[in-house]
Design brief:
The complex is a heterodimer.
Chain A: E1 11-14, E2 18-26, E3 29-35, H1 45-58, H2 63-75
Antiparallel strand pairs in A: 1-2, 2-3
Chain B: E1 2-5, E2 9-12, E3 19-20, E4 33-39, E5 44-49, E6 56-60, H1 62-65, H2 75-80, E7 89-96, E8 105-115, E9 120-123, E10 135-136, H3 137-145
The chains are: A alpha+beta, B mainly beta.
């Protein structure tokens, strides 16, 4: 991993089109400002990992469970 | 085309129904081609991978279970699919089914956004506190009943 030291208001540039700037540093928290092309998706890592885990747990294992689920939604409608 | 799936055996897939997720979905970045299979009477669907027959995600129409579902989806997700009016897009929610069906969960935080005509999709991640990735179906049904 590349490690760079930056001060408040300094920035790094990735690939010439993504800029990440240190906006503020307060109480051990760093506030980042990110400028990137709109096709670039940016997430907090823990949020992304949670969605990834959720998707992995979602792969259907038994068709019967889906049928039960559908019946439940229908019944309660 | 024919597709061998784990859940549904060999199925015939109409190639005009294929949906491309250019970036895949989180955890499955390499799988980009899907089709949507309908289960029964439109309550329930599967997002079936074309590239990997054993992978299918159970998905539902959000409004069936959460009539007031209103995620604020960042504009950049719409742009990834070529942009357009919100009426041109369809939303689905990914569900995680459990043996105890009431304990099944629904991911309200990361809806699938699909441009209906262009047949392109993305899994959006919604910022904010309102929706998370594991809403219990029992809670949602209770809320809906109110």
């Amino acid at each position: 991993m590349l490690a760079l030291t930056r001060k408040k208001d300094e920035a790094i540039v990735i690939n010439g089109n993504i800029k990440i700037q240190i906006l503020d540093i307060i109480d051990g928290k760093v506030k980042l400002g990110i400028e990137a092309p709109k096709e670039v998706t940016i997430h907090r890592e823990e949020v992304y990992l949670e969605i990834k885990d959720s998707n992995k747990g979602s792969i259907i294992s038994k068709k019967e469970m889906a049928e039960q689920f559908a019946a439940l939604i229908r019944k309660e409608k | 085309m024919k597709l061998e799936t784990r859940q549904f055996g060999e199925i015939e897939v109409d190639e005009t129904t294929l949906i491309t997720f250019p970036e895949g979905i989180p955890g499955f970045e390499d799988l980009k081609q899907y089709t949507i299979l309908e289960e029964g009477d439109g309550v329930f669907y599967y997002l079936q991978s074309i590239e990997e027959g054993s992978i299918a995600f159970p998905i539902i129409n959000p409004y069936l279970i959460k009539p007031d579902y209103a995620p604020s989806i960042s504009e950049h997700y719409f742009q990834k699919l070529g942009g357009g009016e919100s009426s041109e897009f369809t939303l689905f929610l990914v569900t995680t089914l459990r043996e105890d069906v009431m304990a099944s969960t629904i991911n309200l935080q990361a809806p699938l956004l699909i441009h209906t005509e262009r047949k392109r999709g993305v899994q959006a991640i919604v910022e904010g506190e309102m929706y998370h990735s594991k809403h219990k179906v029992v809670d949602l049904l209770q809320e809906r009943g109110k």
